[in-house]
Structure formats: C-alpha cells, structure tokens
Specification:
The protein is built from four helices and three strands. The protein has a three-stranded mixed sheet with strand order 1-2-3. It is globular, with a radius of gyration of 16 Å.
Length: 109
Amino acid sequence: MSKLEKINSILQQELANALNKQTLIEGVLVTISYVECSPDLKQAKVGVSVLPDNLAGTVLKKLKATTHILVANVKGRLKLRRLPRFIWEFDNSEREARKIEQLIKKTAL
C-alpha cells in the first residue's frame, strides 16, 4: 500500500468518525465511501453515500457548511502538517446498483 493510499484510508476512517459525532439531518444515514487525495495532498475528493438518496443535495450543502468543524475534529487526531481541502461529492453507486438489480430481476422473469 502506497503512502497516498494509507492517507486516503486514514482520512476516510477519521472523517467517518467525526461525522458520526455530528448529526447533519435527523433520519438520514451518511457514509464516507471514499477519499481520493491529490498527489500533492492539497485537495481530497470525499465521496458520501446518503440514504435516503433524495436528500443528497441537502446533505452536501450541510457538509460544505460544517467542513470547518469536521476538519477541526480530524486535525486533532492526525499528525499531518496540513489537511487537504475537502471536495464533497455524492457517491451514487448505491443508486446505480439498485437500478442494475432491478434490470436483472426484470430480465430473469
């Protein structure tokens, strides 16, 4: 595992821990599905899956608004000189998987 992959994995775990301490919206499950840092570690794309997925836009707005709180929580637990700037993205792989499953069921009938 490369250094960048380790950093991605650690950031994913720490962001998930910080997010679990914070309730963005009642009744919504938010999961950090991936973190992809740029090679220079200046920015990181953070994929989030949201259930129910129709609230993804609202959750992304709240994440952007509370990024500073999440950064403060993560920064205190990691020994990185500087955290990358987080770019929040909706991970729609769950939605796509559901569509594929429905198509498979239809063709099997």
